[in-house]
Amino acid sequence: MTTRTSTEPPARASARAGGRPAGGRRRERRLDAAFGYALIAPQLLGVVLFVFVPLGLLFYFSLHEWRVLAGSLDFVGAANYERLLNDPLLPGVLLTTAVFSVILVAANIVLAMVLAVLLNRRFRGLTAFRAVFFSPVVVSLVAWTIVWGFLLRDNGTINGYLQLFGIDGPNWLREGPSALASVIVVQLFKTVGLNMVLFLAALQGVPSELVEAARVDGAGPVRTFFKVVLPLISPTVLLALIVTAVGSLQVFAQIDVLTQGGPGHSTTVLAYYIYEQAFLFNKFGYGSALSLVLFLVVLILTVIQWRLRTRWVFYEQ
């Protein structure tokens, strides 16, 4: 008895058996990959054009001295970075930036959480209360700052109300400590509404069964919040912390409108100092070097916060 051996190609045999040819599967995989790359191409192009290209140009200009009015661009090497190390104003600017950011971030997160906890309960006037704190988020930043500038004048509305109680208010924007505190308050009320909404959405997603179980076990409201609720919303807290910290390092318009970095340099943060050096003193090379310092500070803080997430973001464990 003779055994007949099939000599059909595997692709044709699988096709006759009801399968799909190997060449067809490879072609589908290539089409799927091409479709995926086409979907991310706009985002990738935007990152290249608006992130990597500006960073490359920033580093290029930091190695040069660009005199715009004279139309010259001279290579100076590391001279601008040497100027960073010898700049007598830079340590004070960095200290002011750190104080501004730490106080603003801490106050923003705490106040937003308190407001979110209050809004998570049902009471009369809830919608109006929510609108009052969120409306500054959608108001024009410059308009918001100009209004606060009128309120904080020496003869402004705030001091007018203080005089009703026999209190002689300071010249808020012309005295060092009060000027920095005023800018922090203006920025705080401008941005706290966004974090409030984020925290409120996270709180409404906490399972009520877990909260009830904690109360049955004898946990009070404070302990329930810190031991049950806060761990569950910790990813949202991390997001708000990163966004608020990065935003605090990029504050410019408020300082430019309210204090112009003064009095002295008491409210000169790094972002405003970059503008001052580059566009007021026409030191574009040095301004570019300072901008790279700001970029590195933001990058380092973001990486540190992201790496520390495994210690307190419970969803990551």
Task: Give a verbal description of the structure.
- It is built from 15 helices and two strands.
- The protein is an all-alpha fold.
- It folds into two domains: 55 residues, no CATH class; 231 residues, Orthogonal Bundle (MetI-like fold).
- The chain has a two-stranded antiparallel sheet with strand order 1-2.
- Helix 4 packs parallel to helix 8, helix 8 runs antiparallel to helix 11 and helix 13 runs antiparallel to helix 14.
- The longest helix has 41 residues.
- It is flat and about 75 Å long.
- The model has no long low-confidence stretch (mean pLDDT 87).
Detail the topology: elements first, then pairings.
Layout: H1 10-16, H2 22-62, E1 64-67, E2 72-75, H3 79-86, H4 90-119, H5 126-138, H6 141-151, H7 157-164, H8 176-204, H9 208-216, H10 221-232, H11 234-248, H12 253-258, H13 270-280, H14 284-307, H15 309-312
Antiparallel strand pairs: 1-2
Helix pairs in contact: 2-14, 3-14, 4-8, 4-11, 5-8, 8-11, 9-10, 11-14, 13-14
What is the distance, rounded to the nearest whole angstrom, between the alpha carbons of the first and last residues?
66 Å
Reported for the largest beta sheet, the result is: 2 strands, antiparallel
Number of strands: 2
Tally of domains: 2
**What is the architecture of the largest domain at the second tier of CATH?**
Orthogonal Bundle
The CATH first-level class of the largest domain comes to: Mainly Alpha
Q: The CATH topology of the largest domain is what?
A: MetI-like fold
Secondary-structure-based class equals mainly alpha
Q: What letter string, H or E per element, gives the SSE order?
A: HHEEHHHHHHHHHHHHH
% residues in beta strands: under 5%
Query: Which bin fits the share of residues in helices?
Result: over 70%
**CATH homolog superfamily of the largest domain:** MetI-like
Shape: flat
User: Tally the helices: what do you get?
Assistant: 15
Average pLDDT figure: 87
Spans of at least 5 consecutive residues whose pLDDT stays below 50 are: none
The radius of gyration is 29 Å
Strand neighbour order, sheet with most strands = 1-2
